[in-house]
Design goal:
This protein is an alpha+beta fold. The chain has a 6-stranded antiparallel sheet. It folds into 2 domains: about 80 residues; about 45 residues. α1 packs antiparallel against α2. The chain is elongated.
Length: about 140
């Protein structure tokens, strides 16, 4: 199978991701507030629950930093660091990609949306599903 052509996209728009984070954060905060409200007799627990609900909004306040994702026909590169890309969630107009850096632990989650990247969207989707580095490149990881 022939590798897909080289591809590159600079991602700097995160409206869908921020909306999703806001929805989940507000749901978590609402649950904490409802739980605290049900414990009216135990005021210290209620205050603790309210204080814990605040940090749930942190992902909404701090947007992800822009990134540059590239496939050079041999490897995936995230801001010049090589690694592997896999699709974690695909909602059609929005994807959550997982970038695992080569030779290091940990992964970075990359929210990508069609809005703002319309010209590159089809090529990005095709590339993330078909681009695979040569097998020997990651044989040491197994």
């Amino acid at each position: 199978m022939q590798a897909p052509p080289a591809f590159s996209v600079a991602v700097s728009r995160f409206g869908v991701w921020r909306g999703l984070c806001l929805t989940v954060s507000l749901a978590a905060a609402s649950a904490a507030v409802a739980w605290a409200w049900s414990l009216r007799d135990t005021l210290p627990l209620a205050i603790s629950a309210l204080l814990l609900a605040g940090p749930a909004l942190w992902p909404v306040v701090r947007p992800p930093r822009p990134f540059h994702l590239r496939w050079d026909t041999q490897a995936w590169l995230l801001d010049a660091a090589p690694g592997r890309v896999s699709v974690a969630l695909d909602a059609g107009a929005w994807m959550l990609l997982r970038f695992a850096p080569e030779g290091r632990w940990g992964a970075r989650w990359l929210p990508v949306q069609r809005r703002g990247h319309e010209a590159a969207w089809h090529a990005l989707r095709c590339t993330v599903y078909s681009a695979r580095p040569p097998a020997e490149r990651f044989a040491a990881d197994l």
